[in-house]
Write a structure and sequence with these properties.
6 helices; single chain; mainly alpha
Length: 138
């Protein structure tokens, strides 16, 4: 097995584990914690087996994680203008599954990353507003 194959296999395995842990967890803070494993594995992977797809995934997953942390912090301070919903996590879990599938099959990562990014964006003020207007659907 080549180094590239090894790191791709590890990447897929970790993305699937993050998804599985998120699915089993009910607590939103813990779901966000498990989601952080996704950008953790991409940032480790591109350092040893660089690809533009892994770099793109890392940027999207890092941004999504930061967005989730932001809304979680706002909710803890009592700002309930935008709420986290189970649907957000269902879509993030689906996105991780599809991303793992794409890496495993050496297919385009664009669609899973769009799903993850759009879901995270929907937790922002602008994203939530667009969702309320019916312009952004999860």
């Amino acid at each position: 097995m080549s180094q590239e194959e090894f790191f791709n296999k590890e990447l897929v395995k970790e993305l699937r584990l993050a998804e599985a842990l998120m699915k089993k967890e009910e607590n939103f803070d813990k779901k966000i914690y498990y989601f952080s494993a996704a950008y953790g594995i991409t940032s480790r992977t591109y350092r040893y087996s660089f690809s533009k797809d892994i770099l793109l995934a890392d940027l999207v997953l890092t941004s999504a994680y930061q967005s989730l942390l932001d809304i979680a912090q706002r909710l803890k301070t009592g700002n309930t203008t935008v709420m986290l919903e189970k649907e957000h996590f269902n879509k993030l879990e689906e996105g991780l599954r599809l991303l793992a599938d794409a890496f495993e099959k050496n297919e385009s990562v664009l669609e899973p990353l769009e799903l993850i990014l759009t879901t995270a964006f929907s937790t922002s003020g602008a994203g939530n507003y667009l969702r309320q207007k019916g312009l952004l659907e999860l």
